[in-house]
Amino acid sequence: MTIRIATEDDFLEVWGLLQPVFQKGDSYPHPPEMTEEEAFHLWMEVPIATYVAIQDHKPIGTYYIKANQIGLGNHVCNSGYVVSPEARGLGLGRMLCEHSKAQAKALGFLAMQFNFVVSTNTIAVNLWQSCGFSIVGTLPKAFRHLEKGLVDAYVMYHWLE
What we know:
alpha+beta, 37% strand, Acyl_CoA_acyltransferase
């Protein structure tokens, strides 16, 4: 398995990873009906860099890095991650997170902040904590979970230096 910069040619398969996650409505605030074009803009054009994990010539995971704020807050980055259902439980999320931390440092960021980690997504919360992130805030009932209704979201932070 390799992790590399994503290209426009990768996006059709990346969209195949993103769309079911967005449609499920349990981990990302993106609208379930988000279009491929909207997702391309948010996942490929807005970030500073987008990466794919490739196995057997096929993307099995992806993440992006972007500045979390403009100007005086631009030393903190933000990232989003998606792993294919077939690759879950194999440590790919951790590999993507560790790769993203190294890339963030190489890009000059000093910290990473996840603005909106859904509290009921315990696998992600536990993974991010094991990768050095701390919950620094709770946003009460900030996420409209499609199955569970209103649930909390966490702000998670990790100083990279």
